[in-house]
Amino acid sequence: MEQPETPIGTVSEEARPSIQERLLETRTVMIFGEINQKMAEKVTQQLLLLSALSDEDIKVVINSQGGHVESGDTIFDMIRFVKPTVKVIGTASRTALLAAQYALLAAPTTGRNHGQRTGSGD
After folding, report:
1. Which end of the chain is more exposed for a tag (fewer CB within 10 A), N or C?
2. Closest by alpha carbon to 115, among 92, 88, 96?
3. In what order do the strands lie in the sheet with 28-32?
4. Would you say residue 13 has pLDDT above 80?
5. DSSP state of 67
6. Burial label, 76 (beta-carbon count in 10 A; 0-12, 13-18, 19+)
7. For residues 3, 5, 11 and 15, what is the CA-based torsion angle, rounded to 10 degrees?
8. Which of 3-12, 58-67, 94-103 is most confident?
9. How far is CA 54 from its chain centroid?
10. DSSP secondary-structure letter at 88?
11. Domains and CATH numbers, the chain
């Protein structure tokens, strides 16, 4: 089967960085939806990767209605564990704001983490 030609000056779909890859390039981790073991694993991997790459700040955006407590604790612990400053942003709901505030408690040193809430709320 013959491969379709890619026009000169364009990038094939396979070669284009995904949105996830682009977010990681900007050192941004997204937590949207239910907090569960799969989400905790994904966030842990991203935080560890970004921490290994550099000590530049990491942004964590949270929009979640909650979920599994131990999975949330895993994310909380990883925010505390990594060396870079973690800036936590809660969006859209009071629950996300509470999650962001909970995550901010992870800051072991004064001024290390920052948080803010955006959106209209519940």
Report:
1. N
2. 88
3. 28-32, 58-63, 86-91, 114-118
4. no
5. B
6. middle
7. 10
8. 58-67
9. 16
10. E
11. 19-118 (3.90.226.10)
Asked if 36 contacts 72 with a C-beta cutoff of 8 angstroms, the reply is: no
Q: How many residues belong to the chain?
A: 122
Among 122, 111, 85, 115, smallest CA distance to 99 is for: 115
Distance separating alpha carbons of residues 47 and 36, to the nearest angstrom: 16
- Across the chain, what does the average pLDDT equal? 78
Instruction: Pick the closest to residue 61 from 92, 19, 83 (CA basis).
Output: 92
Q: Please state, in angstroms and rounded to a whole number, the distance separating the CA atoms of residues 55 and 112.
A: 12
Residue type, 22: R
Q: 95, 115, 111: which is closest to 103 by C-alpha?
A: 115
